[in-house]
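We now fix the convention by which a protein and its fold are recorded. These numbers are not coordinates but entries in a learned vocabulary of local backbone shapes. A record is reproduced here so that you can trace the correspondence yourselves:
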Amino acid sequence: MYKTLTAGLLLLACTTIQAQDSATSFKSTEVTDGIYLLEGADGFGGGNISLLVGDDKIVLIDDAMVPTAPALLSAALEVAGRPIDFVINTHLHGDHVGGNALLSDDGAIVFAHHNIRKRLAEDPTDAGGPAGLPVVTFSDEITFHVNGMTAHAFYVENAHTDGDAAIHFVEANTIHAGDVMFNKLFPYIDIDNGGSIDGYIAGQELLLSMADDKTIIIPGHGALASKADLRENLDVLIDCKARVAKLVADGKSIEEVLEINPLADYHDTYNWGFITTERMTRTLYRGLSGQE
């Protein structure tokens, strides 16, 4: 049976919103001509959101959480000057699809990978209800030709989840990575929803192959990034995997691995409220050992 809201995502929602109020307003930053980053101005608004603005169509990449969606829609309308035409979901989690129903009711068409709709169809609560289900789905890729720009949305297999999409704004040399990148944060690899360690690494390698030294990368969480930042995050994950894999190969139990604390070198930079050093270690151990 599909799971739309894992215990991990519940923890994300609870701990984050307890630590800081949900955003009631959003701020916009012009990343490059016609592409804006929207993020909570006075609290947690959800994952990073991209807004593509031009004379032709208005495209939104992800759309916050159910409680913050009205504020997001208001901010997007202020920047764009008119309603959203298309929404592209990068994955199924509620901090990225929460505005689907609201935006759909406002006339937007929601696009997503097949697996996002399949999982949300089991329980569409995180998308704002049944009206939030994606209307158009794709398997491998879909391309939007709008505002004189090519926005290529493509499937990233079994990385953060089993329904991840990243979007390459080709002429703008900008990539919206969704949660295939958490910049300078331990990543959330949602094994229960089809994510995998090797898939996450492969996904970041794919993004890296598309970037050059001038590429702007919009991560799902964290600050705007460069190719060098992506390379650093990828190297850290590869090293973390290797450290835990050695201990798994040595027959260590999860309790023993936690006591050894193999990721301690990265704690000061990558530990955060949702994916702590301990939780990252547990995820790696589970993915490498096959143990729950």
About this structure: Confidence is low (pLDDT under 50) at residues 1-19.
